[in-house]
Write a structure and sequence with these properties.
Blueprint lengths: L17 H11 L2 H5 L3 E6 L10 E3 L8 H12 L5 E7 L6 H17 L3 E8 L4 E4 L1 H7 L1
Parallel strand pairs: 3-4
Antiparallel strand pairs: 1-2, 1-3, 4-5
Helix pairs in contact: 3-4, 4-5
Length: 140
């Protein structure tokens, strides 16, 4: 499924369903954003309903030092949202080990700020992949 297949009432649905979350990421993270190695942060309510203003940060260095990565994620965790969907993107498919390290760090840093990570995706121009919580645990 892609964002073109989203149900008509998708804005009224919680993003706790991984397939729906991935489709919303596909909608919000444009091909231009993906070409710029952008991070998508979609703040949500405690029940998983997305807020109307996602945050997209372009020009991310996915190979940055862990301290810089963690600082970025921690600042997103301080947004005041109860939960979030996060996606990382690049012009090409990101290596799985790199995706897992960002996934694990996102889970840990957001949790440290009291925020639940509802979903984590990686995206390239052709595909959005949803990564399960087990993926983050394998990287730890």
């Amino acid at each position: 499924m892609t964002f073109e297949d989203l149900p008509k009432n998708w804005t009224a649905l919680p993003l706790t369903d991984p397939a729906l979350a991935a489709d919303v990421v596909d909608l919000l993270l444009s091909c231009a954003d993906r070409a710029l190695s952008s991070l998508l942060f979609l703040p949500c309510s405690a029940e998983g309903f997305g807020y109307p203003r996602p945050v997209i940060i372009g020009g991310m260095d996915w190979h940055c030092a862990a301290v810089e990565r963690d600082r970025t994620l921690r600042s997103l965790g301080q947004s005041g949202a109860a939960s979030a969907v996060l996606a990382i993107s690049a012009p090409r498919r990101l290596p799985l080990g790199l995706v897992r390290s960002w996934h694990t760090a996102a889970h840990d840093e957001l949790a440290a700020e009291g925020m639940r990570l509802l979903g984590f995706c990686s995206a390239d121009p052709d595909t959005v992949r949803i990564h399960s919580p087990a993926d983050a645990r394998r990287a730890a």
